[in-house]
Protein 1
Amino acid sequence: MTRKLTKKYLWLPLLLCLSFPLGVLAMENEDCLGCHNDRDSVGEELFIDAQIFDHTVHAALGCVACHESVTEEHPDDGLSPSKAVCLDCHSEVNDEYAGSVHAENASCGDCHNPHQVRGLADVSGHDLNQQCAACHDGAEMVQQHAVWLTQADLHLAMLPCISCHTASEENQIVLYIIQKESDAVFGDFVLSEHADLQQLAGEKAPQRLIDLNGDSFISLTELRTFHRKPANQNLRLQATLMPKEVTHRVDIRDNRYDCSFCHAAGPESMQTSVLALPTAAGSYQRFEVERGAVLDALYGTPDFYMMGTTRSASLNILGLLIIIGGTLMPLGHGALRFLTRKNRSQKGE
């Protein structure tokens, strides 16, 4: 009986092998990237940056998930590996995208490199706009928006295009560290890269420049310390409004013509924020920021001002005192002159 069972189960390994494509068993990501991560070996067109690819949503699936026909004999077999069609996995995205104004002008590959694709939380607003700039000229877009949008150049520089041109209704404030491009007093600020922040942080992780206690939560106290620290005089925080979720319904949204869609203090998105720091792999890591940072104009985000949103309690009090003082001074002066009118008349005033 034991021999029969043993003989019977000897077939299981063979059956398991036959149930999977041979390429899956033969080729791992490391095997593919051993060559494709070498630009000199495969050329620019077939080069894949392994460090970037390892942090994409496709890396976990594996190369053979999209290139099923590749075998361990590749490339000596002389065969071109098969390529998966995006719709094989993303049919629901296709249905949504088909209803947008972009559908007839751009395919998936025009905006997404499958070997570099990342989630929304892993990219910056600048990265997103770089995709749009491949087809849309920046100067021309500013001119078109300026017809109805005040300070169109500022809006387009500070906001991802998808904040206004997708169906996403929920947004959030994302903070980035920017730095002076030069030592000039009025020098331009640019988005800080991982290497820049790592140099400033020394042996510590870049997040410790702000997250002083390393708890992955940015408090208002830590923000104030960051802005007041002399070593950070060439650094500041820049904030932008980004969608919380990605949609592929790319078109013109009529409600974005209403300034109150963004410029209002009431929505939750205007009171909460996250800090996005660049990683060595070129993606971003997000950290929760204490509620109220966006509304703290003095110490929260000095490079962020949105009418109807940004508030400063200190400036509110100062402004109120100026108004009260400006009102009381003429009233007091008039009252004093009225009370002393007899003395002044006797003196011949």
Protein 2
Amino acid sequence: MDTGIRYWSVLNTRLKQEGCEPTTICSTLKMIAADGKMRLTDVANVEQLFRLIQSVPSPKAEPFKQWLAQLGRERLEEIDDPEQGIERLMEYYHRKGYSANWINQRLKSIEVRKELTDEWERRGVQKGHEFATLTDIITHGWSGMTTKQYKQFKGLKTESLRDNMTNLELVLVAPLSEPGFL
């Protein structure tokens, strides 16, 4: 038996003994097993995994619990003072090796995108599919590709497209969403 599966089985048993019912955190779906058959498998999304980490009765889980508590504290600080969130974002981009010029351009593109989506909302455009359609039209206008195609072109899976744009790409995106574009 795989170590991860064995650990989950032991943890599942421990949690039940302590009164925590993992099925309230996880879901069970039929998935293809190693033997090719469809088997019921416990699955969880990111939020559910964080809840599981919080319930793990092991000292080895303590660093993760501390990290989650730190993230929670930082998020509450950002609610009280949004500028702290912007400062953390700038620090994050700096640690990733982006130049000050790129960071400033990225922050400007966030501001402009927000102005654009606010204008869309004022004009009755619905978030979700309609926003995605308009974003595709804009992306196609400067790249010749849809947003999905451009992400594939850049080799991105779940990462933010704008966080993986060059200064030139960010400049190309910004003017299209300036007030008056619509």
